[in-house]
Amino acid sequence: MEWFNDILETGGEILGGAMDTVGDFSDEWLGVKLGNELDRAESSNPDEQRKYQNDYQERDGNVIAQANPMQNYLLIGAGMLIVGGAVYLALKKGG
Known about the structure:
Number of helices: 3
Number of domains: 2
Structural class: mainly alpha
Mean pLDDT: 76
Distance between the termini: 124 Å
Low-confidence stretches: none
Largest sheet: none
Number of strands: 0
Helix content: over 70%
């Protein structure tokens, strides 16, 4: 009868190990699945999507084009070049 107890004990250990492995796998799978669902729910929220868009719209839905900040510097530089050239020509003719 000793061998029967050994078989039951070994079978119980094998079965317990298999159940632990399946339990760990199912916990990980469930955590990943719930995490994915949470990410999907957050990404489908329109308020979350709008915070990344800074496009202003007209009443009909057309997007109003924003000016590029570098464009402002380019215009200021060109204006200073024109004023500097005019001052140079005025001083050259006057002298």
